[in-house]
Amino acid sequence: MEVQRTIKYESELDKGFPDWVTTVPGGEKLRDCIQCG
């Protein structure tokens, strides 16, 4: 199976995604992550 890679640019990111993740159970820890939050 071949993996297709897609390059994303910052301008294409969903700015509300991190806020959505924090509403999911366990997602509140996102802000504690040194890489993600």
Word description of this protein:
The protein is 19% helix and 0% strand. The protein has 1 helix and no strands. The protein has one helix at residues 17-23. The protein is extended and about 35 Å long.
Q: Kindly state the percentage of residues in helix.
A: 10-25%
Average pLDDT works out at 85
The oligomeric status of these chains comes to single chain
Major sheet characteristics: none
Provide the β-strand percentage band: under 5%
- 3D shape: extended
Radius of gyration: 13 Å
Note the total helix count.
1
Class from secondary-structure proportions = mainly alpha
Topology order in helix (H) and strand (E) letters? H
What's the total number of strands? Answer: 0
The N- to C-terminal Cα distance equals: 33 Å
Low-confidence blocks of residues? none
